[in-house]
Design a protein that fits this description.
CATH class of the largest domain: Alpha Beta
Structural class: alpha/beta
Order of helices and strands: HHHHEHEHEHHEEHEHEHEHEHEHEE
Number of domains: 3
Strand order of the largest sheet: 2-1-3-4-5-11
Distance between the termini: 69 Å
Low-confidence stretches: none
CATH topology of the largest domain: Rossmann fold
Strand content: 15-25%
Number of strands: 12
CATH superfamily of the largest domain: Response regulator
CATH architecture of the largest domain: 3-Layer(aba) Sandwich
Helix content: 40-55%
Length: 340
Amino acid sequence: MKPRITLKKIAREFGVSISTVSKALKDSHEISEETRGKIKAFADYYNYKPNNLALQLRNQKTSVIGVIIPEIVHHFFSTVINGIEKYATEKGYNVMICLSNESYEKEVSNMSVLTNGSVDGLIVSIARETQQNQNFNHFEALITDDFPLVLFDRINDDIKCDKVIIDDIGGAFKATNHLIEIGSKRIALITTHDFITVGSLRREGYLKALRSQGVEVDESLIYKIDDKENLYEQIKKVIYVANPPDAILAVNEIYAAIALKISQEKGLDIPKDIAIIGFTSGLISEFTSPPLTSVVQHGYLMGEQAAELLINRIEHKGPEEFQKTVISPDLKIRKSTLDN
C-alpha cells in the first residue's frame, strides 16, 4: 500500500511551499506548466485526496487555541498557562484548557474533541503514560493533516512540529555544581523513571556535573520515583539509610518539599546536615521553612513563546521549517543550600 500523501509532503518533495502545491493542483496559471505537471503527476501516483472535512473545519477559524497539560498541581504548568493566555489574548485568541491526568487515553480523547473544529491549533505537554508506551500516533495524525501543533516541556523529537523546552541538562548541571561548590559529597538525585523525558535529561545534567568535577558517580544515590505510589514513603527511603546523602537534587518542587519535611522529621539541620534543591521556583519553594533553592524554569516565558509559535503557524507567518526554542534556566539560591 502506498503511504498517505499530504500537501506538506508534496511540498517537501519538490522544495516548494504548500501554497504552490495547492495552486498547482488547482491548475493555477501562477505556477509554471512544468511545475504543475510534475506536482500533479506525483499527486496522482500517490492517490492524493484532499481532506474536505478538515479543510472545511480549518477554514472556519475559531480564534481559539487548545492547551493540553498533564496536571494542574505543579506551579510550573499554571505559569505556562498564564504565559499562553497573555500572548493569545493580545493576538485576539481565546484559550481552551484540558487535562490529560497523565493518561494516554485521556490525551487522545482531548485531542480528538479539540481538533474537531473547536480550536485552530494545539499546545501540548505529553502525558506520562504516552511517553511510557511510546505511542504517538495521535500526534502523527495531526502532523499528517497539517494541523498546527506545538509541544512544550515534555516533548518527543520524532514528532515533527514546533517545540519549546528548557535546557533541562543545563539546569541540573547548574544545580549539582552549586551543591558541589558548597561542599556536598554525597548528592542524591530524586527523579522520575527514564521514559519521562525531563527526568531523563535532568539525570544527564546531574551526571555531567559530577563527572566534570571529578566526583565518583554512585548509582545507589539515584532514586526513580513512581508518582502512582506513596511519594512520602518512597522519598523517605532516600534519607532513612545507613549512609544518607548530604545533599538532594529533586526534579520537581514537590519531591524537594517532601524531602525537606522528612529531613526535618529526622532531626536534620538544613542546610548544615543536608542541602536540598528542587526544579520549579513556585509558591511551595518560596514558603517552605527554610525556603528551597530552586531551578527557575521560566514557565511564563515558555507559555508566551509556545503561543507565539502556534499563532504564527496558524496565521502562516514565519519560516516553514519547524522551530525548537530552548530556554535557559536560572538558579534561585535560598536558605536550603545557603546557611545565612
